[in-house]
Input
Amino acid sequence: MKIGLLVEPDFLTKHVGVRSVIYTIYSQLKTFSEVCFISNLDGMWFEMHIPYEMILNNNFTSSWYIEGKPEHIPEVYNRAGGKRLYETKCSYKCYFSQIGSDISSLNLDWLFITAPWVISPSLHIPKNIKLAGIVHDLIPNRYVFEKRATQKPFEFAYEHHLGYYFYDRNVDIVFTNSDFSRIEFLKFYNHKNVVTLSPLTPNSLYERDDNEKTARVGRKIILGNFLDERKGLGILKELFSKPNICDELVLYGAIRCPVEKFYSFFKTINMESVRWYPEISSKQLTREFKSSNLFLFPSQNEGLGLPVIEAQCNGVPVLTAPFGSVREVQLNDSHTICWDDIDLVMEKVKSTFRDNQLPETIETLSRSTFSHKKLRDKLIKHLS
Output
């Protein structure tokens, strides 16, 4: 069997979470079939040749961070022009080979449309190739169908709608990454063959050095993808304006909020020092997780919740909100909380520190729940 994964031309530099999902699917397809990455630009097809190390680490083979007084961090970041203050160089390179205006020569059995926005009028797909479409979330579709015009991020949302409309009428099977996304998809579209994949676990979690041990000392909190209003930025700002929330705070993720909110968040943090990684490698993220006591993730808009899976697979308890697909990947129901009352959130943070659940217990349960084998078996079943 030969399978092509259709990705956007700038796939290597965009949509971090989506790319992680696609790389994970690629790795499991590779165990039982021949797989390639292909893309289309203005009617011309080409193949992407991506080194394994980039697939393993979701392209993040280097890290950089800023550490110091929270109120100084935005100024340091802007003074550096966003340049890397600490960096480990990445030596891996990709290359592209042109296929031509027709992909028949690839002899594909299946073509996976890896995201709805890769669909364009210039695509010509031979009719003998079976099609699978991947649904990551329906968040933009809610803006198209449910919100007032003044609230719509219209262009990107409409790209989602056009892609899913194509799925509904043309693909043989639709794969969603959570039951929540499956239910949401079927609210808007009528496809008869919609399958939920097993929870996707990033490749790096299954090929790492488990002999590397890091002590969990004190009360260390880690935040991921926090500079995004959809991920609970306002709630986190209020929480960390309070004193004595934790002994150490580590943050990772790029800026996805207005610049004034970026400044305001760091200036509000009531701590002497924090460490922020605008980019973090898989290895460095594992090290930070392995020395952390708690991960906070109050997001109310998720198609899957990869950061929650990553934290738990590294033995870190996670406090989440009772929304969307995160409920499917949260392994401890008592850690699903309402974030509206900041005093109750603070008490839950303190009680979680006191509980001191064994990291090995969390990690073992996570590894049995979020399994590459389950994903592989589901793909084999529906593609054979």
The radius of gyration is 21 Å. Residues 265 and 363 are 31 Å apart (CA to CA).
